[in-house]
Write a structure and sequence with these properties.
294 residues; alpha/beta; Arc Repressor Mutant, subunit A; 2 domains; four-stranded mixed beta sheet; two-stranded parallel ribbon; 14 helices; DNA repair; HTH_AraC; DNA damage; transferase
Length: 294
């Protein structure tokens, strides 16, 4: 487990309140996309002055609202795909990325739970779960004694039970124990770039069928600030005809954001679906774009 001081790293609720503004702005932009609304119009739609709106976005991701909204357009998604190396998995650690992007690639370690634990629905496992603030709303986290095994999201407290049940349903025979203090260090390491360090890795436990774990490991090789498609991911796994099966495994990823299924898009660059909502997927890609230096 990470050292105790990280327990308070995300204590302020400000990231969640900022995300609420970002979420409502993205929802407005999505419904009015063809009209190409100005940032002033979007600010008014979420009930903020342009200056306050600008302040919230810069605090949340370091970008102006205009720069962020440009970062989540279809053209931007296509650009992420064009920047992708031909052999993504082999090249991921040879890209010479610097700053937070490079750190993010290095600070996650993972292991797979035995296939038997998955087949029995987690029988005999004690999984501690809890809630913490994040840049993308409330994070609902689950962890065994060996590492983080689940991460989902809720827009507010009312959505927490559904997110918890979603995670618990993946391991129906496990014992789920509410323990916010236990999962707080995982949340801090997952969402605070200042804590990303290969000396203090975020430990993951992948609990799934063999093929699912293979796909989730491949997702971990997609660098921050880039994207791939389901078809390309299937090719990299040596299964070029299994794009649909790969897509299903991507959709069953239990550790959202950290295992970056949000970095997989359609062949045209369209964002397609996301288990925790397309608005949240857009927000994650924009937030990462800022962190990776555009």
């Amino acid at each position: 487990m990470p050292p105790a001081p990280t327990l308070t790293a995300l204590a302020p609720m400000e990231p969640c309140s900022d995300y609420d503004v970002v979420r409502r702005a993205l929802e407005h932009l999505t419904t009015r996309f063809r009209d190409q609304p100005s940032t002033e119009e979007v600010a008014a739609a979420v009930g903020l002055s342009p200056s306050h709106f600008n302040h919230v976005f810069r605090r949340w991701c370091g970008l102006s609202p205009k720069a962020f909204l440009q970062a989540v357009t279809l053209d931007r998604a296509r650009g992420l795909l064009r920047r992708e190396d031909a052999n993504l998995l082999d090249a991921a650690y040879e890209l010479g990325l610097s700053g937070p992007a490079r750190l993010h690639d290095l600070f996650v370690t993972h292991e797979a739970m035995s296939p038997g634990a998955f087949k029995t629905g987690g029988a005999g496992l004690d999984i501690r779960w809890g809630v913490a603030p994040s840049p993308f709303g409330l994070a609902v986290l689950a962890a065994t004694d060996r590492g983080l095994c689940g991460l989902g999201f809720a827009d507010d407290e009312a959505g927490v039970p559904d997110a918890r049940d979603d995670l618990a349903g993946r391991w129906p025979a496990a014992r789920m124990i509410r323990d916010d203090a236990h999962v707080a260090p995982y949340a801090a390491l997952a969402f605070d770039p200042a804590l990303w360090s290969s000396d203090r890795p975020l430990r993951l436990v992948l609990i799934g069928a063999d093929f699912q774990v293979e796909v989730w490991r491949a997702l971990l090789s997609i660098p921050l600030g880039r994207a791939t498609t389901y078809g390309r991911l299937a090719e990299e796994l040596g299964r070029p005809k299994a794009a649909r099966a790969v897509g299903a495994a991507v959709g069953r990823n239990p550790i959202s954001f950290v295992v970056p299924c949000h970095r997989v898009v359609g062949a045209t660059g369209a964002l397609t679906g996301y288990h925790w909502g397309l608005t949240r997927k857009r927000a994650m890609l924009g937030w990462e774009t800022a962190g990776a230096g555009g």
